[in-house]
Design brief:
122 residues, mainly beta, 11 strands, 50% strand
Length: 122
């Protein structure tokens, strides 16, 4: 069982930056693929980024490539999402998710956090 707690959301102007954090419980964090997802009002939840257990591999949805960076610190049981050049269309609730294994995937995550709101004003 893994418990995930996100933090770092807030209100930012377009072009600004935020760093989201997701703290995980448990002693097996380093064996999980970690992902970030988001859900905007009236839309389905969508994949944003994922990182392999060692951090050596990452994958991003096209709309955030070059602007967002996912990273992890296994010693701190924490995964991050660094968001730069934010746009109003990035406004959403951002969720952290975990999946046992080593292959990066865009679905099939077993554990989810409660979400953190990111609002980008124009």
């Amino acid at each position: 069982q893994v418990q995930l707690v996100e933090s770092g959301g807030g209100l930012v102007q377009a072009g600004g930056s935020l760093r989201l954090s997701c703290a995980a419980s448990g002693r097996t964090f380093s064996t999980y693929v970690m992902g970030w997802f988001r859900q905007a009002p009236g839309k389905e939840r969508e994949f944003v980024a994922a990182i392999s257990p060692t951090g050596s591999n990452t994958h991003y949805t096209d709309s955030v490539k070059g602007r967002f960076t996912i990273s992890r610190d296994n010693a701190k049981n924490t995964v991050y999402l660094h968001m730069n050049s934010l746009k109003p269309e990035d406004t959403a609730v951002y969720y952290c998710a975990a999946r046992p294994g080593y292959l990066i995937v865009v679905n099939g995550y077993n554990y989810w956090g409660q979400g953190t709101q990111v609002t980008v004003s124009s």
